[in-house]
Backbone:
């Protein structure tokens, strides 16, 4: 199942998993990345829920941005290898 999901998410994972050389990884990095993705997901849902009650469509841009960040964080956190998690934090 995980390999099938990795194949589907390859366009997102490939830029973060590419590269050579050493990198610094700890398990805490992955845990914090998953928690951050969850928080951004909650924020996206909250923005869309509150914004949909008002007038206009101005709430969609922040909702989509927060949702996109949440999606990328969760995909890399759950499906990415150690290099991808390290690279998203900027540790090479």
Residues:
């Amino acid at each position: 199942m995980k390999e099938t999901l990795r194949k589907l998410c390859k366009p997102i994972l490939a830029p973060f998993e590419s590269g050579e050389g050493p990198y610094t990884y700890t398990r805490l990095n992955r845990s914090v990345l998953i928690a951050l993705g969850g928080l951004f997901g909650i924020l996206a849902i909250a923005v869309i829920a509150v914004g949909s009650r008002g007038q206009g469509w101005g709430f969609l841009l922040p909702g989509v941005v927060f949702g996109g960040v949440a999606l990328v964080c969760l995909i890399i956190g759950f499906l990415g290898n150690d290099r991808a998690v390290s690279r998203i934090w900027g540790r090479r």
Summary: The chain is about 75% helix and 0% strand. Residues 35 and 74 are 8 Å apart (CA to CA). The first helix runs from residue 2 to 8. The two ends are 29 Å apart (CA to CA).
